[in-house]
Design goal:
Length: 313
């Protein structure tokens, strides 16, 4: 399975619990997002990342409505099992995967994730039946630390399978997976590392700042608006480097993640988000530029660990 350099995220698609309206202050629906999906098809960005918990199925519903009109093998579809909303059935992992398949109008899922390490011993074995049946092609773990990744891999390997992907929060402002040795471990073991929140929900997009804060009433506004003044020097350097590469601030943030050997998941709610992501994949940053960005990011002193995340270190 050849992966594109950038995956497209749908966390901000739809509304409802943990949906785009609550988390991002966005108001999106299928009608407004169809042009985004079409732009992705034109750009050759074929991997889409979603989760049942995003709007409690709303994100999957919208994506599935688009996918059904195309050949299924044109896309790489990634979705997740979230332990906190596990259904009360004999096989909750299987139940949730099958419900995701229905919403996504597909017979199989390319990458299926355990969304967080609520109980590695309890939930990881549930992936084995999915792999055996072909309902999922690959499995991964998200928001797991190194010890949890290794334990999940042990459980799967005992049945002849493996953890083939890790999806964690990773950006210029939050490099805990690198500091914990997870990026190196993935590289050494041929595990694909997917970086979510590469743009820090827009804080590293160049769009927001002290004079233009994030939408009031959203979760991200509460998290990021207080720290926006601390990001000025970093954003200015990203603008400077962007000018040298004919790129925007957000493209430099995405290019940084790619240059670190990860697959960034870029949230897309407008066609230009897709077009910028595709162009960012072609940017090669120098070691000097990477070092300058990392130094200024460290100086900010901010910690953008999400409330749902455990420490990686």
């Amino acid at each position: 399975m050849k992966l594109p350099s950038v995956a497209l995220g749908t966390w901000s698609w739809g509304s409802g619990m943990a949906g785009g309206d609550q988390v991002f202050g966005n108001h999106t629906d299928a009608e407004s997002l169809k042009s985004v999906f079409e732009a992705a098809c034109r750009a050759g960005l074929t991997m889409w990342d979603t989760a049942t918990v995003y709007g409690m199925g709303a994100s999957e519903d919208i994506l599935g409505g688009f996918i059904k009109d195309y050949p299924r093998d044109k896309f790489i579809i990634s979705t997740k099992f979230t332990p906190q909303i596990a259904p009360d059935t004999a096989t909750p992992v299987l139940t949730m995967a099958e419900e995701s398949c229905k919403r996504l109008h597909t017979d199989y899922i390319d990458i299926y994730w355990i969304h967080n390490p609520a109980d590695v011993e309890r939930w990881t074995p549930g992936l084995i039946a999915l792999l055996k049946s072909g309902v999922v092609k690959r499995v991964g773990v998200s928001n797991h630390n190194l010890a949890q990744i290794k334990r999940a891999d042990e459980i799967l390997r005992a049945a002849g399978y493996r953890v083939s992907a890790v999806q964690n929060h990773f950006s210029l402002l939050y490099r805990s997976s690198e500091k914990a040795g997870i990026l190196d471990y993935c590289k050494e073991n041929d595990i694909d590392f997917f970086a979510y929140m590469t743009l820090e929900q827009g804080a590293l997009s160049g769009k927001y700042g002290t004079a233009n804060p994030m939408p009031a009433g959203s979760n991200r506004a509460e998290t990021y608006n207080p720290i926006l003044p601390k990001l000025d020097a970093l954003i200015n350097e990203m603008k400077k480097i962007g000018e040298a590469h004919d790129a925007s601030v957000s493209q430099i943030a995405v290019a940084y993640a790619i240059n670190k050997g990860t697959y960034p998941i870029v949230g897309a709610t407008k066609p230009r988000h897709v077009e910028e992501a595709a162009a960012a994949a072609k940017i090669k940053l120098s070691q000097e530029e990477m070092g300058s960005l990392e130094e200024l990011a460290a100086v900010t002193g901010v910690d953008t660990k999400g409330s749902w995340e455990n420490s990686m270190i």
